[in-house]
Amino acid sequence: MTLRATVAELVREFRASGRIVIVGASLAGLRAAETLREEGFTGSLTIIGDEPYEPYDRPPLSKQVLKGWVPADHTKLPRMREVDADWRLGVAATGLDRATKRVRLADGEQVPYDRLLIATGTRARQWPNPTEAALQGVHTIRSRDDAEQLQKALAESPSRVVVIGAGFIGSEVASVCRELGIPVTVVERGSAPLVGALGGVIGEIAAQMQRDHGVDLRCGLGVSSLEGDSGGHVRRAHLSDGTAVDADVVVASLGSIRNVEWLEGSGLAAGFWGVGCDAGGRVFDINGVVTDSIYVAGDVARAPHVLYEYQFLAMEHWDNAVFGAEVAAHNMVNLEPHYHPHLLLPGFWSGQFGVNIKSVGVPPFGDEIVFTQGSVQERRFAAAYGHRGRIVAAVTFDHGKWLEYYGKLIERSGPFPPPPPGWDQPPDMKPMPAEFPDPRVPTAVPDVVLTGHAPSERTAEFRPRRH
Amino acid sequence: MVEETPWQQALRYANRANPYPFYEELRKTPVSRQPDGTFVVSTYREIVALLHDPRVSSDPRKCPVPAGAQAQGSGESVAEPIREVLTEPNIITCDPPEHDRDRRMMMPHFVGPPHAPQLICDLEPEIRRIVGGLLDDMKGKTRIDAVDDFAYPLPVTVICKVLGVPLEDERRFHHWIETALDALDFGPEAASEEIRSRQAGARQAVQEFGQFAADLLDRYARQPGPGMLSALVNEDGPEGRMSKGVLASNALLLIFAGHETTVNLIAHSVLTLLRHPDALEKLRRRPELIVPGVEELLRLESSVQFWHTRSAVEDIDIAGTTIPKGAPIFLAYGSANRDPERFTDPDELDLERRDNQHLGFSQGIHFCFGAPLARLEVQIAVGEFVRRVQNPRLVEDPPPYRHNQIFRGPRHVLVDIDGIRD
Ligand SMILES: Cc1cc2nc3c(=O)[nH]c(=O)nc-3n(C[C@H](O)[C@H](O)[C@H](O)COP(=O)(O)OP(=O)(O)OC[C@H]3O[C@@H](n4cnc5c(N)ncnc54)[C@H](O)[C@@H]3O)c2cc1C
């Protein structure tokens, strides 16, 4: 047999009877499993998830679920097809042995694989003081259980809610509180809500929107401690300016932590920013060498992106989980040159204070912003972000129908400022600084992060070891 | 004589039944300039790009060279008589922010959740009843006209109910619509004596139709009644109320659109299925395929073949061409929906086609307002036709077509049948 025929035979055999293990039974994990079957993989498929539930959808948790419209257990993800997998739910993966190709589980079992997909996502960053975090009434929101508990707490009409951190999720929680008629104080260390994700210019608009809806918004401040009553229930938040706010519910929305601890010692490029991989989802080892058998997708992945100067992008976005999973799954059962790249233009949506906010591209990559359509005053507008004369992102407030247009411009590296629209032009179309916080200043961590280094900013000294 | 462009040929009445070979030719130049200065866009990607381009206006008042002007040889647009009467814009003939505001005002009275999420689904029993009745009426017949006996009566009845237009007036406005449509020609035949003579009639028909809508709205202003028009006249939203003129213009649009496009879609669906007995049989065996099936029928024979009120308000570089500021743009949906770059085997009927993002309802901010209603009507009508009509056979292929090119559809579809099942 020729080498080529042998390889083809091996691929066929793997597709027919290989063993694939997916760790992380949520959006990315499920979509990957479906794609594997779609691509004709008939081997054994094991899906490991530490949550006891079948895959469910998270975006509704901070929206419809909190409002009480949809019960938390009604967020199950629709199945696109039968996946015929061995589901190991309610048990965490605790380790990875690449030499023997086994995933270790919390219950002591070991699951062998030929190919592995890491889809463990992120978890909510907890309030840093464990005693205070354990007070009743202190919440975070990432899982179905979190949302259910917080929904119950809100349904009891608390006298006031304090939201710590005004990123997307914190802002959505504040919005729900106002819709439910609950007084809410938002404390944000940055200069405005959403600054990390969308910059100060848009942040100012978001701030005004919150205030118009009766949110007590305190920016440039942190919460220094939480105080409980004798029954162990939170009653007060102390702020960094010495003031205090009485509240019965505190929601810490401090960004997220990537679930990579179980990969410790595996020799993979896994760390604070996630699991490094190439644009095809193939994981790098710590030396930057691509592995053949391990893939990653979703919130926990970080991959170089051609549109953003090949910087590594980590995206905590729904679309990214879906498309990343599809690409990784495709590549798991194919060979070069049939690999697909995951070159998604990042996109995000959020609903808050009656406004539908959407963005495309990577706003923090931009340093300038220009309003391109609509009216800021009416909070229906589109704005574009620019970097060195090209458009790199756009954001819309209740103008989502135009996103596709900006997406196309970004994909083509169109000029910044972009060509003016023919009509519905805002009065002022002058580009201005987008006002992203200095990345070294601690603030709510944005959910798209550029984690690469420009050569001029190299901070590590490279010293090859001499033998 | 100068040779006709593929677009002009596509628009000739003789080619109404099958303009697709000409579209195929046309797509070789995705953006092609016509002798009259109009830019015709025929490929999927380019049309989608323009549908999402804020430099493309839908407001004919912003277009210095009205579309189809030279086809007339007179510098007057073929749409002129209608435009003269319809001075106020409706949601398809204006741009944001007016467009957005007006559509926003209309939405809650139609499908806009959270205001009226039930409106369309609640119509289902009524639609089933009408469709059932139409099929019952065919009992005992051996030959039916799928247009007159089936495709036409349903949408008319439904739109009258939704809008609150008395069904008794249907004959009158049907006549006005037909007269206006027959005079609207964008092809080489526009200059003919016949079409020109129809224009005067069209002017009058639109005038009377406009008066009819205005009277109806006045009546509702004095005494509120059922339906969307009365609600629009009487209910104030957060942004106030539409002006009378704008409201009348939109009322015309809704009566017209709710009535014209769905008829053609049902008629074409029946026609297409009769041409593909295997697909018809498959649909009979697997009725759940009606949902993707209708999307496929909509792709294959899009109800609106192209749209004519768009123009460039800035220079637009696209597909190697610059559409200059001020030029009229025709977006040829009927062609895009068969673009092989986007759809595999585009001329094939595949009831289970995947990723069928056709342009049958357009895209972008002018995406068909009535799409959810049209979908429900056609799904029920075609589904029931397939289920109940025994051994249907097409009598004449191609059937005679109506004159208009935008709202392309058969005038009659004669079908021989063995009977009607219960
Ligand atoms: C409240 C909320 C609102 C959101 N709203 C939006 C929105 O409006 N728009 C948008 O684009 N995105 C939104 N997102 C983000 C979106 O939900 C995520 O991008 C998406 O869920 C990522 O999917 P994933 O599969 O990568 O990760 P996850 O959904 O986080 O799934 C990872 C799974 O792996 C499990 N796991 C972790 N470690 C282990 C282990 N060691 N062993 C076994 N299992 C493990 C986790 O418990 C989890 O079930 C929101 C997220 C949240 C939390």
Automatic annotation (TrEMBL), chain A:
Cofactor list: FAD
Region (Disordered): 416-467
FAD/NAD(P)-binding domain segment(s): 19-322
Domain Reductase C-terminal: 348-416
Gene3D superfamilies in alphabetical order: 3.30.390.30, FAD/NAD(P)-binding domain
GO-annotated molecular function: oxidoreductase activity, acting on NAD(P)H
Sequence ranges of Basic and acidic residues compositional bias: 455-467
Domain of life: Bacteria
One GO CC term, this protein: cytoplasm
Protein name: Ferredoxin reductase
Organism: Streptomyces fodineus
Lineage: Bacteria, Bacillati, Actinomycetota, Actinomycetes, Kitasatosporales
UniProtKB/TrEMBL annotation, chain B:
Matches recorded under PROSITE patterns: CYTOCHROME_P450
Domain of life: Bacteria
MF annotations from Gene Ontology: heme binding; iron ion binding; monooxygenase activity; oxidoreductase activity, acting on paired donors, with incorporation or reduction of molecular oxygen
Record's keyword terms, sorted: Heme, Iron, Metal-binding, Monooxygenase, Oxidoreductase
SUPFAM superfamilies, alphabetized: Cytochrome P450 (SSF48264)
Entry's family note: Belongs to the cytochrome P450 family.
Protein name per its UniProtKB record: Cytochrome
Gene source species: Streptomyces fodineus
